[in-house]
Amino acid sequence: MNNLSPKVQNQLGMLQQIQQQLQNILSQKAQYEMAMREAKRAQEEISDSADDSVMYMSVGTVMMQKKKEVINTKLTEKIESLELRIKSLEKQEKMMQGKFEQLQAQIKAAIEGKGTPTAA
User: Residue 40's domain is classified under what CATH number?
Assistant: First the structure.
């Protein structure tokens, strides 16, 4: 790595940063997807129960009795919010992936371009 130009070394550092940001985005996306699956599963369970069933909802550290409609509405809102966050993260993921691939190609071209005259 010492024989690489400062520009290429800088690009390699940027590539590592982009890769780390991409991993963070993927991790957040996985967490949101899991939360959305849980909320959808809860919504399915609620839909199978009778309208007069006793239901509880977690509000902070407290469980409160709520009507089925209220819980269903809150779950629907949560799912919609999570879907928006996931879509936003997917856009960021595509953008970062594009930057990553572009920078990777630049580094590869710089290294190959530098290696060719030396070999000749």
Answer: 1.10.287.370
Residue with tokens 């928006």: 84
Q: How many residues are recorded in the chain? A: 120
- Rounded mean pLDDT, 108-114: 83
Q: State the Cα–Cα distance between residues 30 and 86, nearest whole angstrom.
A: 9
Structure tokens at 93: 């993921």
Count CB neighbours of 103 within 10 A. Answer: 17
**Cα gap 37→24, rounded to integer Å:** 20
Instruction: Tell me the pLDDT tens digit for each residue of 65-103.
Output: 999 999 999 999 999 999 999 999 999 999 999 999 999
Domain count within the chain: 1
